[in-house]
Amino acid sequence: MSGDELADALALVNDHRGDHRDDHRTADRTAGAAGAEPSGPDGSRGTAHDGRSHSTHRARHHDWPTARAVAARAGAERRPESATVPLAEALGHRLAAPLTALTDLPAFDTSAMDGWAVSGPGPWELDGPEDGRHDGSPGPSGVLAGHDAPAPLLDGHAVRIATGARVPPGTTAVLRSEYGEVRDRWLRAPRAPHHGADIRPRAQECRRDDHLLPAGTAVTPAVLGLAAAAGLDELPVLHRPRAEVLVLGDELLSSGLPEGGRVRDALGPMVGPWLEAVGAEVVATRRLGDDADALLAALAGTTADLVVTTGGTAAGPVDHVHPALHRLGAELLVDGVAVRPGHPMLLARLPGGAHLVGLPGNPLAAISGLLTLAEPLLRSSPRVPSRTSPGAVPRATPGTTPPDDVSHDLPDGVSGGVSGGVPRDPRHGAPVPLPTARLLDEVQGHPRDTRLVPVVHDGRGVRPLRFSGPAMLRGVATAGALAVVPPGGGATGSAVPLLRLPWV
Ligand SMILES: Nc1nc2c(c(=O)[nH]1)N[C@H]1C(S)=C(S)[C@@H](COP(=O)(O)OP(=O)(O)OC[C@H]3O[C@@H](n4cnc5c(N)ncnc54)[C@H](O)[C@@H]3O)O[C@H]1N2
Ligand code: MOO
User: Fold this and answer.
1) Is the ipTM of this complex over 0.90?
2) Which residues form the domain of 165?
3) Do 254 and 324 fall within a single domain?
């Protein structure tokens, strides 16, 4: 073990000594088994995980795959609203209807090159000025892009034309400027262009009313461009789930250096952008301190589809999330997950229908909660509206596949699976297989819980990173993925599933 690794290991051991107030803690914890406090023998606690009696809660402690599936199913229940918005506001949303061309593309026969529109075999007598420039004269002149209804071209004639200009009626081909020569108002070419050369015929790309993209397609900059080219000024889109982030903890500072026992808020700057990266529209990130009433009021009054809290999920005196959910009569769908770090994470349905993901306060534990609960919830949101609302439109054509369901290139040493490894089937919420990779170093496991371990791609596999304790972000900040290490651990060379980070 290198000096750095030893330091790392000590940090992890100390971390767990400092953080965990768990009576069952075992003495044999090592760096590899970091975060390894046992839960019940079957990974289930049966009651609210903190031992408080919340008899009206349906406490649900799940293993890691089940927790993801529950989150995905919850997301699939969402009934997204659609609205018709100007193109400039559509970026990042999903199409609520197929993108339908309002025009032929091109809308008219178009020159693909700068040169001359010619009619018949050459040589051709030139109409308009010899250099093709507009001289303001009333007679025939060159044809520029943007000109309407150019004069017809007679057989044996030619006229200067610019790329993108409408070809005059009677044109049989466009001769590129580098292929012809004009002398004494006659255009000659060593080789006559074939019929139709360098003319983009009307409707070459699409006809009016053609479906160019299916409903559910993510609106990217290229989609905006296509929509504009096809004549649209607005697009029907599904609203992304609206998310609100509530950062809990009186000990947090929003600027400057840690002092007086207080620490910098590492989650406020991180959670909102992370949610955006997996499909949410973050409407606010608010700091609430450790104020139980403020939390209750925020949850009761939220207009978001998803509330994400950070901290306050455990059993400490100021851990207010469970009591607030209890007082509101929220339904706990996931109440603790057999995963390290992050086991106190939770998922609830608020009485108004919004979901709440409670992320543990330790920063890497919060990332574990984002990947385990928030991402499956958001990614499984339906791609098409289930009911028609004003401005909304028909369902996706059956059998069409949103483009981002396509596997993309995987790094060396990573095989199989689907991009991001998140649930893709909104009807069933079933998680799709994750890509896998071989561990280049052994990872010690928890006896019963799954471990999520930041890794970096390294040649033929993935290498676990140092500085990956529950309170640390130094490792994950350089990671390409989190390896899913099953209970019992992963030997060198064994294949483990990967949770890819949304921006990798
Ligand atoms: N009796 C038990 N105590 C704890 C358990 C347990 O099972 N039984 N689990 C431990 C584990 S594991 C975690 S993770 C934490 C989760 O605690 P909370 O979600 O209640 O989070 P806090 O207590 O508010 O904070 C924990 C830790 O994280 C720091 N923190 C919180 N928010 C932020 C932030 N925005 N930026 C940076 N750091 C943050 C906070 O200062 C604490 O150090 O509970 C253990 N306890
Ligand atoms: O081990 Mo806790 O779950 O730090 O995250």
Assistant:
1) yes
2) 110-200
3) yes
